[in-house]
């Protein structure tokens, strides 16, 4: 099948490109790096984005460090790490933001995860909501606006350095979250303009769920006409097919390739990067950079300090296969931990949803 072949080709290319950069999380700066921090209770707005109050080696190089905020001193520390690093090493702070609640999140809560995964997620929606390439719920909009308010608070009170570069997943929920989060902020002088690059490989893990099926390039351009869309972005989604799904390994390879387009592409003097994405994709990025598992709630944001090092190695050429995902053809009989299809409905691997994009 053409789409599956294309997906495998993408993964194989990602292995070859990503293997030339090694990523490491630099710990000791954020609470989210610490094993003692519980992701289920962590509130980034109550914890200064998780930045730990501490002294830095670079403090002694700044005569007035005593009058600086923690975020100003941290930015100075990252600047010095880059200044003192060789050409093949670069440090960046990735602000990883999960989109606000989407209608697919609400539907999964309503139906329960087992039933959602094996039947309802393969449909375009129900009589009250659509979740193919899901939009934000009112709650999701509030979560994105909460992030906007917190960024403004950090700018005003902590004089935080605003992102130098912005990237966003092409899924509707991520696009709208990024827009609500950063539009209208009273930014410091000389801050980079908020014009996020729409990047295919920062999308959610590609499953058979219709919420992972992105809309067209034309739709994205019409939604935010002034945002750049990366070169090579196809008009239609050529990765989702409703039959095969990425394994975690395949997604990690994709995430590593995406990071390869972020690092070593601009001056080391621009180290702060915002990436608005998804729970599964952020989890994948964290695996690639060697960070501990840290699941984000909808609308949450965590920064991580990452060291990237170019290595002189022969790139790997093997690819990571995608997987077939059987699902029910009728609403399932479920339990707390598993999904069971009705006896009359044998699990299939063909798409259940059709015609959604005819409305767009």
Q: Topology of this structure?
A:
Blueprint: H1 2-18, E1 21-25, H2 70-83, E2 89-98, H3 103-111, H4 113-118, H5 138-158, E3 165-168, H6 172-182, E4 197-198, H7 217-223, E5 244-245, H8 248-260, E6 272-277, H9 279-288, E7 301-310, E8 323-324, E9 333-334, E10 339-340
Helix pairs in contact: 1-8, 5-6, 8-9
Protein name: GPI anchored protein
Pfam families: His_Phos_1 (PF00300)
Signal peptide: 1-18
Describe the structure.
- Residues 1-18 form the signal peptide.
- Strands 1-7-2-6-3-4 form a six-stranded mixed beta sheet. The protein has a two-stranded antiparallel ribbon with strand order 5-8.
- The chain has one domain: Rossmann fold (3-Layer(aba) Sandwich), CATH 3.40.50.1240.
- It has nine helices and ten strands.
- By secondary structure, the protein is an alpha/beta fold.
